[in-house]
Amino acid sequence: MLFDLPDHETLYRALLERDPSYDGHVFVGVTSTGVFCRLTCPARKPLMENTRFFDSVAACFEAGFRPCLRCRPLDPVGEREPMVSALLRHLENEPERVWSEEDLVRLGYDPSTVRRGFKRHLGLTFLDMARLRRAGRGMDRLVAGASVVDSQQAAGYASGSGFRDAIVRLLGDCPADLRGRELLKADWIETPIGSMLAVADAHALHLLEFFDRTALPRELKRLRLATRSTITFGRTSVIDRIEAELRDYFAGTRHVFETPLGLHGSVFTRRVWDELMAIAPGTTRSYAQIAASAGRHTAVRAVARANGANQLAIVIPCHRVIGADGSLTGYGGGLWRKDWLLRHERKFA
Questions:
Q1: Architecture field, domain 182-349
Q2: 318 has catalytic annotation
Q3: Where do the CATH 1.10.10.10 domains begin and end in the chain?
Q4: How far apart are CA 14 and CA 62, in angstroms?
Q5: Domain boundaries for CATH 3.40.10.10 within the chain
Q6: Residue-wise over 127-160: b if at least 16 C-beta within 10 A, else e?
Q7: Rg (CA), the chain
Q8: What is the per-residue pLDDT for 199?
Q9: What long-range pairs does 81-85 form, CB within 8 A, spacing at least 24?
């Protein structure tokens, strides 16, 4: 039921609604124009009788359709807009620069367009990200033992109050309290189904979540308490590693993740997570089956809570747990992502 191509009426409704859960898995051929598109294509929608649906690009070509020039169905899904990628490169190349809207204009960008593009892809504006990066540089200096003044200057803040306010807003800590403490690093990872926030130290991955998950702020707070650490923007080799493994996973060439994990949960919760990681890609299990495997047949609700407490989306595959009747059930990243992941894994398993 989860993986067969839905009926024509369902797919046409998904086309009208630009449903992202089918992106990369279902394409529409428009007989009146001879082109094929993603279901999320922004072009004017065809009449229902002028549509044919296919489960692969190859099938579209075999039926005589050519790719749409607007939605570009041959391009990989989930790629950043060129504007976002270009500005992120500027940010990496000039980490000490204090960015402003005037800088964006000088580079040929409309500030409002940049603002919308970054909010859409990363959940915060370019200028917000630049400020957080600068604050992160200052925190790195503090952890290394530098004075607050030296750290403030390294972060590009003209005033000490501005630097202190930036760190307190970001972490809830005063700059002087950060000296000598190990920091967790956080950075964005792009995927075909949305941007994810990865948090890691030098040894393990502690969090991997979709940025638009409503529980993300609470998860970050719990993580800070569990590790007795704080979080700053930056990169570690662990984040590089999980980014590479996710790239292989979405390409269909990897089914098992090998990045070391930092797990924060009770003994029973971790047992449930072990059971989740034992579910083979392309298959599903019910909450009751997980409870039985974990040795507590009646603990279905406890299994559901442990499922919801998972802070490592995709890597600990809570998306592979479904209802006893075979229906999709709650998923923090959104049911459309759960459906997308199950279809993706069934396709490549």
A1: Orthogonal Bundle (1.10)
A2: yes
A3: 182-349
A4: 23
A5: 8-67
A6: bebbbbbbbbbbbbbbbeebebeebbbbbbbeee
A7: 23
A8: 92
A9: 81/117, 81/121, 83/109, 83/113, 83/114, 83/117, 84/117, 84/118, 84/121, 84/122
Residues in the chain: 349
Q: Which of 60, 68, 71, 318 is catalytic?
A: 318
For 77-179, which CATH superfamily applies?
A: Homeodomain-like (1.10.10.60)
Query: Using CA of residue 231, residue 237, residue 241, residue 247, what is the dihedral sign?
Result: positive
Between residues 123 and 281, which one has the greater pLDDT? 281
CATH 3.40.10.10 fits 8-67, yes or no: yes
Helix, strand or coil, per DSSP, at residue 322: strand
CB 310 within 8 A of CB 272: no
Mean local confidence (pLDDT), 318-342? 84
20-59 tens-digit pLDDT:
778 877 899 999 998 999 998 988 999 999 999 998 777 7
**Taking all residues of the chain, what is their mean pLDDT, rounded to a whole number?**
80
User: Which pLDDT score, from 0 to 100, does residue 176 have?
Assistant: 45
